[in-house]
Amino acid sequence: MPDVNSISTTYDPYSSTRYTAKSNSKNTLTITNFIQLLAVQLQNQDMTNPMDNSEMMNQMTQMAMVQALSTMTETMTAGSAMDMTVYAAGLMGKEVTVAVMQENANGTLTLAGSKKGVIESVNLSGSAPTFRLKDDDTDYPLAYLMGLGDVTDSVENGNESGTDLT
User: Fold this and answer.
1) 111/127 Cα distance (integer angstroms)
2) For residue 15, what is the DSSP state?
3) Residue 99: which region, alpha, beta or left (left: phi > 0; alpha: psi -120 to 50)?
4) What are 28-81's pLDDT values in tens digits?
């Protein structure tokens, strides 16, 4: 397969990317906005053809369900972040194997090897917990944790059975 970067000045079109819209006041409908919109709709409705009560109840029910799902998502996200924080803090002093990543020519990270060490410190101040190994100044994201103990042999040989890989 030819190198895409030698043909085009754009990035690799085969790499997967994901774009999501950020939530802001212009693209988010709150329950308050919905009630205001409903009040304006009721004020400006045609008196000869009023809004159907069941249609209005359907709209209110749908908005309540969206609000409940939004609250549930926020709660799940907060709970997941708390679980990750507790897990990271519990790794202090444990011997682990971490992935050593390297950036390749097109800017994606690839596995360059692994490193074994004892977790000396955990940083919980960022958006995701990071940790440092003893005698190593690199901040490793929790996602780089390959397993507890020395799992380099089974990772290099492709045999993960019987090994605790996290």
Assistant:
1) 23
2) S
3) beta
4) 777 788 788 888 888 888 778 777 778 878 888 888 888 888 889 989 988 888
CA distance 33 to 25: 10
| Dist. CA 31–CA 60, nearest whole Å | 9
Sheet with strand 109-123: strands edge to edge: 140-141, 130-133, 109-123, 95-103, 145-148
Residue 131's φ and ψ, nearest 5 degrees, are -140, 160
What is the three-state SS of 98-147? Answer: EEEEEECCCCCEEEEEEEEEEEEEEECCCCCCEEEECCCCCCEEHHHEEE
How far is Cα 136 from Cα 23, in angstroms, rounded to an integer?
Answer: 38
54 burial via Cβ count (<10 Å: 0-12, 13-18, 19+) = exposed
Return all residues near 130 (Cβ < 8 A) that are at least 6 apart: 122, 123, 139, 140, 141, 142
Here the tokens at position 147 are 């397993």
Whether the full predicted model's pTM is greater than 0.85, yes or no, is: no
